[in-house]
Write a structure and sequence with these properties.
single chain, 640 residues, 24% helix, alpha/beta, 8-stranded antiparallel β-sheet, 8-stranded parallel barrel
Length: 640
């Protein structure tokens, strides 16, 4: 075993050596688009099977673990941890450029096999927290997706109806005073603290083929996690089917959209199709292809089979499946590809439009940018800019917060007075300067403030505001700095004061010196109004500024965006990472944004937001990665 592991980790196993049947055409991981991972699940018994591990290496961009992360396997007693198998699989995946889907941190339905079964109250809470800290902490930065909790719903197996999740094996967790009714949210937040960069999902078996209440129950559960403040990124839908139990595609599609409307990613996990002794392998292939087609159409993030080949499957145990004739996977007992494999391969080979970057729809537009940072003088000031397109010149309200931020309820370290200067592209001198919002045009500014829905400044405050006419296809910049005194927190606001006129905002940006902490970060917010969906490109630029002569540019930027409820919608470090879905092309192809090198450490996220006839606010935060500091820009581009 030790020698085999050396061979595997060194990537030396070749198909010709182990002598298993090679599929024709390109491998699944080569064919799949960047925004979806093709995955297979590996168990302890597979590690000594060179043919299986060669399939895993060549076919899958994501490796899932069957039992090796389950509490009973990795942490069987309070002071005992079995790291060997999990370490090996994680190292194997990293050596082969694969992501890891780790299953699972907490699985109370199987507590009967684990020492948690004997615990309750504060002892249970302490044990769960210790388990999460130890396991998630050991693999911090190495796991792409964590199944934080598995199968929290309680099932009536005679009717396959899902009950509320606070019953069954989870009841004692909710009964604990230290966990209480927000138990699941607390578990997700603990996992996020242990591994902040991992995607955290809830995983469950939805039994949609029986038209049961499973999907609705899981939907209610994840909504509750969100409402309770839990850091949850997605949901895993276990796809256990059989040749006589077809997927309910319409129902699955309905709930994929409902989960995505909550801001959650969807993963197809634990895919298998029990043949129950049938030889209708064309029918099995059709089920796999139908599921994959749905995943590709709806932007599902992963397509993961529960096992690799028919000879090793949980369904070969008659407790769970039909036994040795279940034959549920893509490769047969001899590790050779089946019709189901070729159906998946054929579907991936077809042109696949990226559903994660659908264009804007309906009548919508950007209406506002706000930016917050610590502002000093000259090059350390806060800068914000914008561009409109179409129509004629229109009026904008531009404001600078300073003194108001020092007073309750904000109580920030803000300047007592601010100076705001507005510049037109190509001109060295400002077209407007203001050091007190109501020193001139106060009544007109107050009227415009009320019209756009901005918070009013107090009379006589030394916050700043101006009304200016903005021409289309011309860049404008506002510079905000203290008007005497030390540096402090300021906010810039740019408001479209004439939304009924044709010219529309197509680009908003803000620049400041930032650091790694929230106190030194650059915050930006933008608002969309109208109906349909609005697609925006959000960038956190640091290294890319060097091409413009910015010598003290942030060397490594981290970008995170949030919705109006302060729920994270996405985080990115290094815009051209394969999991970012940008297909390794110039971002200028999307929005007219300036191009950056493929290997730059700038950050980027494409956000698509439903507006539903109202307004939707989104916030972005740019921080320095690994403690770095320097000048950064946050940019928002309207995408067609």
């Amino acid at each position: 075993m030790a020698f085999l592991r050396v061979l595997l980790s060194a990537n030396l196993l070749l198909a010709a050596i182990v002598g298993f049947a090679q599929p024709s055409g390109q491998r699944l991981r080569q064919l799949s688009p960047a925004w979806i991972d093709m995955g297979g699940t590996v168990g302890h018994a597979n590690l000594a099977d060179a043919a299986v591990m060669q399939i895993v290496q060549s076919e899958f961009s994501m490796v899932a673990l069957e039992n090796e992360f389950k509490p009973a396997a990795i942490h069987p007693s309070p002071n005992t941890y079995n790291w060997a198998d999990a370490d090996f699989i994680v190292n194997f995946a990293q050596a082969n450029g694969q992501k890891v889907h780790a299953h699972v941190l907490l699985y109370p339905a199987f507590d009967e096999y684990h020492f948690f079964k004997d615990l309750s109250g504060s002892a249970l809470v302490e044990a769960v927290n210790t388990h999460i800290d130890a396991v998630a902490g050991r693999y911090k930065g190495k796991i792409h997706v964590w199944d934080v909790v598995n199968e929290a719903t309680s099932w009536n197996w005679s009717t396959l109806q899902a009950a509320v999740w606070k019953s069954g094996p989870f009841a004692k967790y909710y009964a604990s005073s230290a966990f209480g009714p927000t138990f699941l949210a607390k578990v997700f937040n603990r996992a996020h603290a242990a591994d902040p960069d991992a995607k955290l999902i809830y995983n469950d078996n939805v039994h949609d083929q029986f038209n049961s209440s499973g999907l609705e129950t899981v939907y209610g559960l994840v909504k509750q996690i969100i409402a309770d403040g839990g850091h949850i990124d997605g949901v895993g839908l276990q796809c256990h089917y059989a040749i006589d139990q077809q997927p309910g595609i319409a129902r699955l599609e309905e709930y994929i959209e409902k989960f995505q409307a909550l801001g959650l990613d969807v993963y197809f996990t634990e895919i298998d199709v029990d043949m129950k002794g049938s030889t209708d392998f064309a029918g099995q292939a059709a089920i796999y292809r139908t599921l994959l087609d749905l995943a590709l159409r709806k932007g599902v993030k992963a397509f993961i089979t529960w096992g690799v080949y028919d000879g090793y499957s949980w369904l070969n145990d008659t407790t769970w499946g039909s036994g040795p004739n279940s034959n549920p996977l893509l490769f047969d007992d001899n590790r050779a590809p089946k019709l189901a494999y070729y159906a998946v391969q054929e579907r991936l080979a077809q042109e696949v439009p990226d559903p994660t970057v659908q264009p804007s729809s309906g009548s919508n537009r950007l209406s506002n940018l706000s930016a917050r940072a610590v502002a000093g003088y000259e090059g350390d000031a806060l800068f914000a800019g914008w561009v409109t397109r179409g129509g004629a010149a229109k009026r904008f309200l531009v404001r600078a917060w300073g003194p108001t931020l020092a007073a309750p309820p904000f109580n920030l370290n803000a300047p007592a007075k601010v100076k705001m200067s507005v510049y037109r592209s190509g001109q060295d001198l400002p077209i407007a300067v203001n050091t007190g919002w109501d020193e001139s045009e106060g009544a007109e500014i107050a009227e415009a403030t009320a019209k756009v829905g901005a918070s009013p400044f107090a009379s006589g405050s030394k916050d700043a505001a101006v009304l200016i006419m903005v021409e289309p296809d011309v860049g404008y910049t506002v510079k905000i700095e203290p008007n005497g005194g030390p540096a402090g927190v300021v906010v810039a606001e740019i408001w479209d004061a004439a939304l009924d006129q044709p010219a529309r905002l197509v680009n908003l940006s803000a620049r400041a010196k930032v650091g790694a902490s929230d106190a030194d970060a650059l915050f930006a917010g933008f608002v969309g109004v109208g109906d349909g969906h609005q697609r925006t490109l959000v960038r956190g630029m640091g290294p890319g500024l060097r091409q413009f002569g910015v010598g003290n540019a942030l060397p490594d930027s981290m970008l995170e965006i949030f919705n109006m409820d302060a729920q994270s919608l996405g985080i990115n470090d290094d815009w051209n990472r394969p999991d970012n879905g940008l297909q390794k092309k110039s971002l200028s192809d999307l929005n007219g944004a300036f191009a950056v090198p493929l290997d730059s450490r700038d950050a980027c996220i494409i956000a698509r937001r439903p507006l539903s006839g109202g307004l939707v606010g989104t916030s972005a935060i740019v921080r320095g990665k690994r403690g770095s500091t320097g000048v950064a820009i946050v940019e928002v581009y309207e995408s067609p």
